[in-house]
Design goal:
By secondary structure, the protein is α+β, with helices and mostly antiparallel strands. The protein is 25% helix and 34% strand. It is built from ten helices and 19 strands. It has a six-stranded mixed β-sheet with strand order 6-7-8-3-9-10, with helices on both faces. A five-stranded antiparallel β-sheet has the order 13-12-11-14-19. A four-stranded antiparallel β-sheet has the order 2-1-4-5, with helices on one face. The mean pLDDT is 94.
Length: 355
């Protein structure tokens, strides 16, 4: 049974449709990420769920209750904004307890709850300090503690890590996810960072132009993208323009490649053949390997634990691929710029989309 259900939601600004007929269900205790480029509608959807920017049409149900027309103060959620939005004139303890005080809880109960929350987010001694005395990562923890103070059933995170440096962001990813699992609070996070979504979410909602492109687990989104947009936006992807010669075969620049059987595409139709750089196979190729391709290494970029190689097919120079070669492979095969070797494109790793 879904905890949050969004049905046929639209949001219009004059003639511009920011959201178009969005429907989505989120289970209780689930961590869901809205992922997409700037302007795709993900923040608009989050704000509609919160009641901060009400929808033009459609309904929102939370725990079976229709909250579509309720003001934010009447909805059961806590929210953390990108800018943290802490009160600079209040110390940390008063920031965290602000929502509890407004509910007229006894001062003793507020103090106890604030101490519990600051310990929960790893800032047990920060109560007397002011936001300006804290680092960005510490301010984010305070904002998270404040959002959790009233024990909301729904936690909304609007790009909460985007203002932090890479090292702090990486650490807080794991801390937020561990905290969410411990509390079991249903969480929706907006992000444009695919790595954040892949590492934190139970499910990802990929959005583009005010519509949902795909909903799935991180593994499903990455391994089986439903559209060319998802394939291109999440992770790195090679795209080869070709033509569907048969339900299980694509021709690219005069070369034929075996691929999964395509339903819904007709022979002769222009298509895009896709494969991820790490799926290009090099080692231990049998003589009859499917989609075996002699290539030349045109360029190598060192990326630490692996090298990103630009490859060019020797029989069809128009075919250019990017492949990720491990440091061990580079050493064992002596791969350098200008090396000639064979690679294979495993059919089960190929995706085909209409051009």
């Amino acid at each position: 049974m879904s905890y949050l259900r969004v049905s046929n939601l639209t949001k219009r600004y004059g003639s511009f449709a920011a959201l178009g007929d969005i429907s989505l269900e989120i289970g209780e205790g689930e961590f869901v990420c809205f992922l997409g480029p700037s302007g795709c509608g993900k923040t608009t959807l989050l704000r509609a769920i919160a009641g901060l920017d009400p929808q033009t049409s459609g309904t929102i149900h939370q725990k079976g209750q229709d909250v579509s027309a309720l003001p934010p103060a009447k909805r059961d959620f806590g929210i953390v904004f990108q800018s943290y939005a802490l009160f600079p004139n209040l110390n940390v303890a008063d920031n965290v307890g602000y929502g509890l005080v407004s509910r007229r809880l006894a001062r003793r109960d507020v103090t106890k709850r604030v101490e519990e929350l600051l310990a929960l987010v790893g800032l047990p001694d920060a109560g007397p300090k002011y936001p300006a005395q804290l680092s960005g990562g510490q301010q984010q923890r305070v904002a998270l503690a404040r959002a959790l103070a009233t024990s909301p059933g729904l936690l909304l995170l609007d790009e909460p890590l985007s203002a932090l440096d890479a090292r702090v962001r990486l650490r807080l990813r794991h801390e937020i996810k561990a905290l969410q699992r411990r509390l079991g609070v249903t969480t929706v996070m907006v992000t444009h960072d695919q790595e954040e979504a892949l590492t934190m979410a139970d499910r990802i909602v990929v959005m583009n132009h005010g519509a949902i492109e795909q909903v799935g687990t991180p593994q499903q989104i990455y391994r089986a993208p439903a559209t060319a947009f998802v394939a291109d936006f999440v992770g790195s992807m090679n795209f080869l323009s070709g033509r569907l010669a048969a339900p299980d075969r694509v021709t690219v620049a005069g070369l034929s490649f075996a691929c999964p059987v395509q339903d819904g595409l007709a022979a002769g139709e222009d298509v895009r053949l896709c494969i991820r750089p790490e799926d290009v196979r090099v080692r231990d190729l049998p003589a009859d390997a499917s989609n075996r391709l002699p290539i030349e290494v045109a360029e190598l970029d060192f990326v630490g634990s692996f090298c990103r190689a630009s490859l060019r097919a020797r029989a069809a120079p128009a075919i250019e691929l990017t492949a990720d070669f491990s440091s061990n492979l580079m050493r064992d095969l002596g791969v350098t710029a200008g090396s000639q070797l064979d690679v294979a494109l495993p059919p089960d790793r190929l995706r085909v989309f209409a051009a």
